[in-house]
């Protein structure tokens, strides 16, 4: 079958903003970083954790005069920070006709937990603001964006994943512009969860250093305006998004692959999409959480992608790990470095403590740079990488290969009660004797069981390379069942009783991780949060997102479980011209 080819639109960065403990604009944040100032401090606040810890918390917000009294009371702290930051990003751009711009724009929100701070009194009715689609919808409505916003909740790669998704939509002219927002809070919910994993540092985090002992959490909002119209940027030599990729380790839910192959493959695939080779990359802004295994894995991934000659840096010592915001604010730091011929230090770094020798500097350096790779990794085994470059470094645009999909099989399971007994029956039919199944949350049991049924009658799928098998799922409630369970535990029993086994399932993309591990799906995987009314059109939308990947096999569809209600509608597809 003949393959459709379209000419890519170039994707420009038109504006950006960072809202963090270091400042409320991009320049304020970078000025602080240039002065070796960190937002991470000792926090003694019982509302966040019962004992002191190190983190980066915004103390005094800047949005007081941006809202009327009525509006001020109608928005949460996170929503106000997002709106303030979007306005600042627009001010930093060269957008003149704002109404026309917004009519041609899609809002893409990257977040892990959104307004999780208002999830309290879990025995009572859930506040609507907890739903991630409500958060995104309020922002879009405030701005006057009519297109339904997208929410990506894919653990710690959410921000980079959102940028890749936005750039692909613009490349294919699905939209002219995208406002990418990364936002998360420093909350009791999150702090207790990471403390349960014993992963928080006893001081400010030290990525790649011999003395690193864990991560530091933080909160921030980052906004990047992407566009196909160069004139929307004030820069004479604007930054462009050249290509990106997402992979899965298919190895472990809460620990990265020890070989670095998953992230290494994502980096290689992103460079392939950008049509560049390792010698053309000037630096790598990595995830760099300062946990023992993450940094070890990243050092191996750098070698896997043949980038060991590049400077490798982490921005986490300045902002902490800001979850869904991290990939966005750290990308903005990449833009600034290329535009200012400066390589930022990995603050606090003194002695290399990872198995592979990588170039890490504890001091800022003046150095001309024109292209970089930004990476991220997260729970569920997910990895993402994206290539940025100054326009003057960017190459001629290539065509995009678009191939359609052939439906192979469908699996549906829907009900309003007795989920436990129903799902056990289905697993007996699968002859699944894996005890791990009984430790999963219900959302993951639902999705993994459905995927197993889809694949069991099609053994030929095992012949498809693992890196060409992908997953695109969506729902409305995210992981709210597990959220409530975790919140109820810390409310009723105390912070120290938080369970890592529960907390890991407060990320909806964990269902992708479980399916990937069981069935060796190591290709692109993304979890979207969509409005309920998008349920019936979800498969078509998700397959459209998969068009620009190298995948040959995809499971896509709706995977919802909240309260007593469960609703699974997933489908198995192969590429039209797959042999």
- Report the CATH architecture of the largest domain: 3-Layer(aba) Sandwich
Remind me, CATH topology of the largest domain? Peroxisomal Thiolase, Chain A, domain 1
Radius of gyration: 22 Å
CATH class of the largest domain: Alpha Beta
Can you give a write-up of this model?
The protein has 579 residues and is an alpha/beta fold. It has two domains: 4-400, Thiolase/Chalcone synthase (Peroxisomal Thiolase, Chain A, domain 1); 403-575, Peroxisomal Thiolase, Chain A, domain 1 (3-Layer(aba) Sandwich), CATH 3.40.47. The chain has helices at 26-34, 69-74, 77-91, 98-103, 132-143, 158-171, 188-196, 261-274, 292-304, 316-319, 326-340, 419-430, 442-456, 480-492, 500-503, 510-519, 538-545; strands at residues 4-7, 11-19, 40-43, 53-56, 105-110, 150-152, 177-184, 217-218, 220-227, 239-248, 283-285, 311-313, 342-343, 365-366, 371-378, 382-390, 399-402, 405-415, 469-475, 525-529, 553-562, 565-575. Strand 5 (105-110), helix 5 (132-143) and strand 6 (150-152) form a beta-alpha-beta unit. It is globular and about 65 Å long.
Features:
579 residues; alpha/beta; Peroxisomal Thiolase, Chain A, domain 1; 2 domains; 3-stranded mixed sheet; globular
Entry summary:
The chain is an alpha/beta fold.
Strand and helix map with partners:
Elements: E1 4-7, E2 11-19, H1 26-34, E3 40-43, E4 53-56, H2 69-74, H3 77-91, H4 98-103, E5 105-110, H5 132-143, E6 150-152, H6 158-171, E7 177-184, H7 188-196, E8 217-218, E9 220-227, E10 239-248, H8 261-274, E11 283-285, H9 292-304, E12 311-313, H10 316-319, H11 326-340, E13 342-343, E14 365-366, E15 371-378, E16 382-390, E17 399-402, E18 405-415, H12 419-430, H13 442-456, E19 469-475, H14 480-492, H15 500-503, H16 510-519, E20 525-529, H17 538-545, E21 553-562, E22 565-575
Parallel strand pairs: 4-8, 5-6, 5-7, 11-12, 11-15, 19-20, 19-21
Antiparallel strand pairs: 1-17, 2-9, 2-10, 3-4, 6-20, 7-9, 10-16, 13-14, 15-16, 18-22, 21-22
Helix pairs in contact: 6-11, 8-9, 12-13, 13-16
